[in-house]
Amino acid sequence: MTKILVVDDAAFMRMRTVKLLQENGYEVAEAADGQEAVEKYIQEKPDAVLMDITMPNMDGITAVKQIRKADPNAKIVMCSALGQQSMVLEAVKAGAKDFVVKPFQPDRILAAIKRLTG
What we know:
The chain has five helices and five strands; from the N terminus they run E-H-E-H-E-H-E-H-E-H. With about 120 residues, the chain is of the alpha/beta class. It has a single domain, classed as Response regulator (Rossmann fold), CATH 3.40.50. Helix 2 packs parallel to helix 3 and helix 3 packs parallel to helix 4. The longest helix has 13 residues.
């Protein structure tokens, strides 16, 4: 089963995303900030990551850099609110493979995950 790590400091966004992914046959792990995301990535070895950008403790861009240092082949999709285009570009430079704008459409999340995980 394909495992996805969902990283967002907003509990309701994690809950919504986890529910969507589980209903579509994915196994899901969760993290509430970038620091936890790096730790969970190393422990869980997910097939892909959905990463928020703006979070406490460690932001998503720093987390992407650390995850990619641990695993250069990590498949990460950034999730950002409208108006964070410069941060999205920075995330892509850091190694993110795709990005989704929040509030996201469920089909867009599923398409991004499917594209990364085959």
